[in-house]
Specification:
Blueprint (H helix, E strand, L loop, with lengths): L17 E5 L5 E5 L5 H4 L5 H12 L2 E2 L11 H13 L11 H15 L9 E4 L2 H12 L5 E6 L5 H7 L3 E6 L9 H7 L4 E7 L11 H13 L3 E5 L25 E6 H4 L8 E4 L2 H11 L8 H11 L3 H24 L3 E2 L7 E5 L9 H12 L1 E2 L1 E2 L13 E5 L4 H16 L2
Parallel strand pairs: 3-13, 5-6, 5-7, 7-8, 8-9
Antiparallel strand pairs: 1-2, 4-10, 9-10, 11-12, 12-15, 14-15
Helix pairs in contact: 2-13, 3-11, 4-11, 5-6, 5-10, 12-14
Length: 420
C-alpha cells in the first residue's frame, strides 16, 4: 500500500486507509476509516452499468440492459400526470393505497384464481427490488440457507448475503435450462429457510413448467421452507408456455409471497412500483421491513397503476404478442448471423451460443468485441453465475426495443460476422 499512517508511519492496510476531512477550525486532518459492510463492498459495479457505459462510449446499439426504449401506455401516464397535479401528494398509507391494493387483489383472482384480502394480504413497494429486499430481510435469520437458481439476476445474491443468508445454488444450463432433480435435492437441507424463485426467469428466458414447480414444492414442504417468487415478467410468456404461480400449489399459499412489477407489465420501468401478495402473517412481517426502507410509494403512480391493472384482456394479449414477435425477430436474426439461440419462453431476453460463430474466446471477450467492432452491446451470461465453472460461451440480448433498433442491430451483426 502506498499510504503511510501519519502517526506511526507504518504502511496502512485496506481496512484503515486515511482520508482527509475538515475539522471545525477548517484544518485538514487524517481520519482512520473502518472497513465498510463486507457483504456489499465485495461486489463491483453491475455488469449492466459496465456494458452500458462501454456501449455509450462506442456508440453501440445497447441490447444489454433490460428496459424498453418506448414509454408505456399513454392513458396510464395521463392518469399519473392528472393525479400528480390534482393531488394529494402527501404520504399515502404505508401498505399502499387501498385502490391499488384492491386492483392487485383483483388481478390475482382474475388471472390465477388467487383470492386474498387486499387490506391485509397485499403490500405496495417502490419497485420489485425493494419487495425482494423487504421479503428477504423479514424472513431470513443469519445462518439460514437460501436456495437460488443460477444464472441468477444480479441483485439476488447481495440481498441474501446482506440479510445473513447462506446461498445454496441450483445450476441451470443452456440451451434448454432444464431443472435437474438431483441438483435440486442437493441444495436442500434441514437448514433451508427459503427458496428464491424467478419465473419467468431473467436472464434465461425460462418459464418453469408444472413438473418443475411440483419438484420445488415437494422439497419446500418437506423442509418446511418459504418461497419468495419474483414474477415480474408474468405477462410476457410465449407460445404454449404458461405462467403458473407456485403459490397456487396445494400447501404453498401460506408459505409463498409473489412479487409483481408495474414497470415490466406496463413498460414503465422508471416508475418503480412493485406489489407483494401473500398470507396475512407473511405480509405483516414483510411490512415491518418495508416501513424502514421506503415506507411508501408515490400516490400518483399508485393511482395510475391501479387503473392499468384493470385494463381488459386485450392489453395483456397485445403485450404478449408484441414481445413474442420481437423475440422471434431477434432469434432468426441471431441465427442468420451464425449464432445458435437457447430456449426462450418468456421475459425480455434471448441467449445465444457464441461458439456457433467460430469465436474461440470467452463470452466477456465476445461482448467487448461486438461492442467495439460490430456496434452492438450484449451481456456475458457468465456474469450471472457465481459457482465454479460458469457457462462462458453464451451471451444475452435484450429484445424489448423498437423494431428499427432490433433490425439495425441484426444488420450490424450480420455484416460483422460475414466479413470476419
Amino acid at each position: 500500500c502506498p499510504f503511510l499512517c501519519p502517526y506511526c508511519l507504518r504502511p496502512l492496510t485496506g481496512k484503515d486507509m486515511p482520508v482527509e476531512i475538515n475539522d471545525r477550525k477548517g484544518r485538514l486532518r487524517a481520519a482512520m476509516v473502518k472497513q465498510t459492510n463486507s457483504a456489499l463492498s465485495g461486489f463491483g459495479t453491475t455488469i449492466f452499468e459496465v456494458m452500458s457505459a462501454l456501449a455509450n462510449e462506442k456508440g453501440a446499439i445497447n441490447l444489454g440492459q433490460g428496459f424498453p426504449d418506448e414509454d408505456g401506455p399513454e392513458d396510464i401516464r395521463a392518469i399519473a400526470a392528472k393525479a400528480l397535479m390534482e393531488g394529494p401528494n402527501q404520504y399515502p398509507p404505508m401498505m399502499g393505497t387501498m385502490e391499488l391494493r384492491q386492483a392487485v387483489a383483483d388481478h390475482n383472482h382474475r388471472f390465477y384464481g388467487i383470492a386474498v384480502n387486499p387490506e391485509t394480504d397485499i403490500l405496495i413497494t417502490s419497485g420489485a427490488t425493494e419487495a425482494l429486499n423487504d421479503s428477504l430481510m423479514a424472513l431470513i435469520e443469519p445462518g439460514d440457507e437460501v436456495v437460488l437458481f443460477e444464472p441468477l439476476y444480479d441483485c439476488y445474491l447481495p440481498l441474501v448475503l446482506r440479510a445473513g443468508g447462506i446461498p445454496k445454488f441450483v445450476r441451470l444450463d443452456p440451451p434448454h435450462w432444464t431443472l435437474d432433480a438431483d441438483r435440486l435435492a442437493e441444495a436442500f437441507s434441514e437448514k433451508t429457510k427459503l427458496v428464491l424463485l424467478n419465473t419467468p426467469m431473467n436472464p434465461t428466458g425460462k418459464v418453469f413448467n408444472l413438473d418443475e414447480l411440483q419438484m420445488i414444492t415437494d422439497r419446500v414442504l418437506e423442509n418446511d421452507a418459504y418461497v419468495v417468487c419474483d414474477e415480474v415478467y408474468e405477462h410476457i410468456v410465449f407460445g404454449l408456455s404458461r405462467h403458473i404461480p407456485i403459490a397456487t400449489f396445494p400447501g404453498m399459499g401460506e408459505r409463498t409471497v409473489r412479487i409483481g412489477s408495474a414497470g415490466k407489465t406496463f413498460s414503465l420501468t422508471g416508475w418503480k412500483v412493485g406489489y407483494v401478495t401473500g398470507c396475512t402473517e407473511m405480509i405483516a412481517r414483510i411490512a415491518k421491513a418495508h416501513q424502514f426502507v421506503t415506507f411508501t410509494t408515490p400516490p400518483a403512480l399508485q393511482h395510475a397503476v391501479a387503473y392499468g391493472l384493470n385494463k381488459d384482456d386485450d392489453y395483456y394479449e397485445t403485450l404478449r404478442e408484441d414481445m413474442q414477435a420481437k423475440r422471434n425477430f431477434m432469434k432468426f436474426g441471431l441465427e442468420s448471423a451464425g449464432l445458435q439461440t437457447a430456449d426462450c419462453d418468456g421475459t425480455y431476453f434471448i441467449n445465444a451460443d457464441i461458439r456457433a460463430s467460430g469465436f474461440k474466446g470467452t463470452d466477456a471477450e465476445f461482448c467487448q468485441l461486438i461492442i467495439e467492432q460490430a456496434g452492438v452491446a450484449a451481456l456475458p451470461v457468465s456474469a450471472f453465475y457465481t459457482s465454479d465453472n460458469a457457462v462462458d460461451h453464451f451471451v444475452r440480448f435484450c429484445f424489448c426495443k423498437k423494431e428499427q433498433v432490433l433490425s439495425d442491430a441484426v444488420s450490424r451483426l450480420n455484416d460483422f460476422f460475414s466479413n470476419n
